[in-house]
C-alpha cells in the first residue's frame, strides 16, 4: 500500500503522507511564536559550513508577500517550489483585488495544492511543513502551521521539524497570552537552545526573523543578519559564539 | 438619459439613481432599482446597455457574495472595485465588451471609512469624494464641487442631493421625476427619502 499515494491502507491510512511527515521530523527545527505586537520565527539550520555564503541565501525563513513570512522544515527543493507558488498566489490576489491577500487565504491555497498531491496525479506529496506568520486588517497578527497532508491550523506558538514535540511542550509551559514581541524573541531563542543538538547557539546555526508593525502602521519584516543574531544571543546569555567550528 | 450619483460623507455614502426604465420615447417602468447590494456594506449602481447592465451587476454580486461565503470576511470597497474594474478591462478586449457605467459605494469596516468609485466600460476606475454618470452629471458636478466637503453629515448630504435633483428638474430636458436614494454606512445599506 506504500507504493501509491492515491491508495488507502486497510487501516484507512495514507502511508505516503505519513512517510513525508517522517522526512520532516529529521529536518532542522523551526518555531513560531505569536505575540501581541508581532510574531517571531526562529529556526535551526542543518547546512552549516564556513564556506556557505550566508548573506545571500536563506535556508529556513522566507518572505511570501509584504504581509506574510514563512519558516520551512523538510526537503528544501520541495519548499522552494511551494514558496514560489505561494508568492504567485499572493501577487495574483493583489492583481485582482488591489489588496494584500488575507493570511488564512494564502495558507488555504497552499494547503489545497498539497492536498491535491495526496489524492490525484500519482505523484508523491511534498515533504515540507510550513509555519506562516502574517498580518492582515481582518484578524491582525496570525500564526499558522501546515503539513504534507494539506491540513492547517492557527496557533499561538508552534514548532516543526526535529524535536518538535519537546519544543512544543516547552512552549506550552512558558507561553502566556499577553506576551510581547521582545519576550517572544527571548522565549524562541531559549526553546531552540534547549532542543538543538549542539551545546551552544551561534548565528551560524540559527535563522531568526520577526514580523511587526512599524511606526506608520505598515507591516515590517526583519530577517536578522548573523551579527544581529549574535548580539541577540549575547543579550539573552545564550551563546553568540565567536569561534567558528573547524570543518 | 439614466442618471447615477454618489456622495461620500463623514462615515457614510449617499447614492441615488433615477427610477425610470425607458426605451426610445416610451417609459416602460417608473420604479426601477438601478442598484445591486454586493454585500452588507457595499452597493453598486449601474447604467448603460440594457441586458449588459443587469447581467454584469449580478455577475459581480454573485462573485462578491461567494468570496464572503468562502472566506468568512467581506470584500472591502477597494477590493470589490478593483475586482470589478479588472473584469471590465478583460471584457473590453473580448468579442463583445460589457457596455456599463458603474458607481461602487461602500463602507470599509476594517478602517471605518466610506469609499466611492467611478468606473466605466473601458475599465477606468477612480476613487472620488463624489461622482455621477449620465447627462445629469454635467449639471450636478459643479454643484457638488461648490458645496461638498469631506465631513458632510447625513442631513447636509441629503440637502446636497436635493439641490442636484432640483437642478435636473429645472434644467434637464428629460423629466427624471423619481429617484431611489440609499445610504451605506457601518450599519449596512438602507433606502431613505429626502
Q: Helix amount of chain A, in percent?
A: 25-40%
Q: Structural class of the helix and strand makeup of chain A?
A: alpha+beta
Task: Please tell me how large the radius of gyration of chain A is.
Answer: 18 Å
| Tally of DSSP β-strands of chain A | 10
Biggest chain-to-chain interface with counts: A-B, 10 and 12 residues
**What portion of the residues of chain B fall into strands of 2 or more residues?**
25-35%
Strand content of chain A: 15-25%
Overall number of strands of chain B: 12
Provide the low-confidence segments of chain B as ranges: none
The average pLDDT score of chain A comes to 90
User: In what order do the strands lie side by side in the largest sheet of chain A?
Assistant: 8-1-2-9-10
Strand count, sense and barrel status of the largest sheet of chain A are: 5 strands, antiparallel
Spans of chain A with pLDDT under 50 lasting ≥5 residues? 242-247
Summarize it.
By secondary structure, chain A is of the alpha+beta class. Chain A has helices spanning 15-24, 76-97, 103-119, 164-174, 181-195, 226-235; strands spanning 30-35, 38-44, 61-65, 68-74, 128-136, 140-146, 152-154, 157-160, 206-213, 219-223. Chain A starts with 14 loop residues before the first helix and ends in a 12-residue tail after the last helix.
Q: What would your notes on this structure say?
A:
- The complex is a heterodimer of chains A (247) and B (194).
- With 247 residues, chain A is of the alpha+beta class.
- Helices cover 34% and strands 25% of the residues of chain A.
- Chain A has helices at 15-24, 76-97, 103-119, 164-174, 181-195, 226-235, and strands at 30-35, 38-44, 61-65, 68-74, 128-136, 140-146, 152-154, 157-160, 206-213, 219-223.
- In chain A, strands 8-1-2-9-10 form a five-stranded antiparallel beta sheet. In chain A, strands 3-4-5-6-7 form a five-stranded antiparallel beta sheet.
- In chain A, a hairpin with a 3-residue loop joins β5 and β6 (140-146).
- The radius of gyration of chain A is 18 Å and the shape is globular.
- Chain B has helices spanning 52-71, 77-92, 136-147, 154-171; strands at 4-8, 12-18, 21-23, 26-29, 35-39, 42-48, 100-108, 113-119, 125-127, 130-133, 179-185, 188-192.
- A five-stranded antiparallel beta sheet of chain B has the order 10-1-2-11-12, with helices on one face. In chain B, strands 5-6-7-8-9 form a five-stranded antiparallel beta sheet, with helices on one face.
- In chain B, a hairpin with a 2-residue loop joins β3 (21-23) and β4.
- The mean pLDDT of chain B is 96.
